[in-house]
């Protein structure tokens, strides 16, 4: 008798729900509807007059998004400086969004990626914690930005104007056959040598990486200054700098990248402390940290 009294209320409740005419919602569908949006793709392409950067999400759009220029970028949580190549830095923040699955695996592909576009140079993840997802975008130049959203699928779109003239230059990376390989990049005239060096430090695109190209950084994190005077280019590296005992270093990529320009005959590379072995006279020079 006790069992019968327990079952009857359950049946009655079920009859009431059916009588209302409301469709039953499976528990799995309810969980999916309330799930945090997940980033599944980051892509960029050039359109007439602009570079378009797209963040695509599975599920609904993030609760909020914020896009702004910043002087530098820091990793969420640790506060460590994040190095992103560009003449201007854009911070993109999504609140109420994830970039990983339940196992903690990244859902949108490489966390640092390079583009061979007139404006967008690099896109780098700077945080994915407690449903806050942030990225740094390195741009060739600070330009007007337009941000809007699209649905089906859910996307946050950032249009970056490219109201300037670019010229093609070459950046030299190490190939799978251990030979230097030149790739083409668009840079803003007239600062073509500076633009070529920026593109070198940004590294290969994903397609170029798939072909076996790589950037040998020799522990450097970038460069702080480039000057060209009387045929001599002087490059000041940032970061610790070190060859690791290798004969091939970052210098072997910097030299051909800069010497493609007729105005540059010699390249002198300095460490972060401002030292190089042969600072004066004609001829190339490297700091001691790049010796094998």
Low-confidence stretches: 1-33
Give the domain tally.
2
How many helical elements? 5
First-residue to last-residue Cα separation: 89 Å
Secondary structure category: alpha+beta
In angstroms, what is the radius of gyration? 26 Å
Helix content: 10-25%
- The whole-number mean of residue pLDDT values reads 90
Give the ordered list of helices and strands: HHEEEEEEEEEEEEEHHEEHE
The CATH topology of the largest domain: Immunoglobulin-like
Number of strands: 16
Largest sheet: 5 strands, antiparallel
Strand order of the largest sheet: 3-6-9-8-7
CATH architecture of the largest domain: Sandwich
CATH class of the largest domain: Mainly Beta
Shape by Cα distribution: globular
**Strand percentage:** 35-45%
Topology:
Elements: H1 2-20, H2 27-34, E1 38-47, E2 50-58, E3 64-70, E4 73-74, E5 81-82, E6 88-95, E7 112-114, E8 120-129, E9 132-139, E10 145-150, E11 154-161, E12 166-174, E13 180-188, H3 192-202, H4 206-210, E14 222-229, E15 232-238, H5 251-259, E16 266-270
Parallel strand pairs: 15-16
Antiparallel strand pairs: 1-2, 2-11, 3-6, 4-5, 6-9, 7-8, 8-9, 10-11, 12-13, 14-15
Question: Briefly, what is this?
Answer:
The protein is α+β, with helices and mostly antiparallel strands and 292 residues long. The chain is built from five helices and 16 strands.
């Amino acid at each position: 008798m006790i069992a019968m009294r327990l079952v009857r209320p359950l049946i009655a409740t079920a009859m009431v729900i059916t009588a209302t005419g409301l469709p039953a919602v499976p528990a799995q569908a309810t969980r999916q509807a309330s799930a945090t949006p997940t980033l599944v793709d980051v892509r960029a392409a050039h359109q007439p007059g602009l570079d378009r950067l797209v963040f695509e999400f599975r599920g609904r759009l993030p609760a909020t998004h914020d896009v702004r220029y910043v002087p530098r970028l820091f990793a969420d949580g640790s506060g460590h400086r994040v190095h992103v190549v560009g003449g201007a830095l854009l911070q993109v923040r999504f609140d109420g969004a994830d970039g990983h699955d339940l196992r903690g695996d990244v859902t949108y592909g490489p966390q640092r990626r390079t583009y061979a576009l007139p404006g967008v140079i690099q896109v780098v993840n700077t945080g994915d914690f407690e449903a806050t997802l942030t990225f740094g975008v390195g741009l060739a130049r600070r330009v007007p930005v337009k941000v809007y959203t699209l649905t089906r699928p859910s996307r946050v779109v950032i249009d970056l104007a490219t109201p300037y003239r670019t010229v093609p230059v070459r950046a030299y990376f190490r190939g799978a056959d251990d030979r230097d390989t030149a790739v083409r990049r668009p840079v803003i005239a007239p600062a073509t040598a500076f633009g070529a060096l920026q593109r070198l430090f940004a590294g290969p695109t994903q397609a170029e990486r798939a072909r076996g190209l790589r950037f040998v950084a020799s522990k450097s994190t970038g460069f702080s200054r480039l000057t060209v005077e009387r045929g001599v280019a002087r490059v000041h590296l940032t970061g610790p700098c070190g060859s690791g005992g290798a004969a091939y270093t970052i210098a072997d990529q910097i030299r051909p990248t800069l010497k493609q320009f007729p105005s540059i005959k010699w390249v002198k590379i300095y460490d972060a402390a401002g030292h190089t072995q042969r600072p004066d006279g004609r001829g190339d020079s490297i700091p001691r940290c790049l010796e094998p």
